[in-house]
Amino acid sequence: MKTTILSLLIIAVLASCTSTSEKAESETSSEPSATVAKTPEFSLVPVWSTDSILLTPESAIYDEARNVIYVSNINQDPWEMDGNGFISKVNVEGKVTELNWVTNLNAPKGMGLIENSLYVTDNDAVVQIDVLTGEIKSRVTCSDVDAKLNDITVGKDNRIYVSGSESSKVYMLQADSLIVFSEGEYERPNGLLAEEDRLLILSFNGAAMSAINFESNEFIRLANGLGKADGIIKLSDKDGYITSSWSGQVFHISSDYTLTKLLDTEDEAIGAADIEYIAKEKLLLVPTFYDNRLMAYRVEVK
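The structure corresponding to this sequence follows.
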């Protein structure tokens, strides 16, 4: 009888240990919900917004030399060749100082600045604008007819990279032509950011951030869950990046590629297109697309 009771006790203890072990293994092996950090280190504090006089603003870029913000205005249809797109000037306090600074564009989007030249994608071409006069100096048309050029980034040696959302290619501007730099590794490339040794690419359809190494041409996916990934800026090597999702979300991506949502205005029908960052003011600039404003947020560390 004692032997039977002892045997039953041993079986019960072993079963309990097995159950606990299986539970612990299950908890350890389960993946975290998405890759979202529980406690954000950064937050966005509203500072200002322009009046609602911009017309489908898509991208903003800060010209430090002249202390002015340029905003590209699609003006209704994002891919229409209608000639009603334009560039505006906005001061750092949020006042639109010159609404129709450069006109006769189609649907201007991403922008890059090299000294006195502003480079702007305009559906099928990259337009060069003299910022001193507002004059269009050149227009380089893409040989891929339906490329749908989107964002621009300027890398070392002033190399200009351009995303083709429809062609799923990234181009490089060389003299009077756009040559293919990379293709086929992403779904609808949008936002670009050139770093010292690599090019970061946001995938609008793939909701991801990836990188291509300039020397090895190695492609690697770094972060997922970015929504309709649109714009990207870098805070610093230590503080990581901020990206936007066209539908209204803004995310922080840490240096180890952990994702935190900082802002979500989708329910208010306020978009978040191609963002810009003014480092000295710690200001994040967010074009709101169909909401027709440029909004500024202070990036604060908790």
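The longest strand covers residues 96-105.
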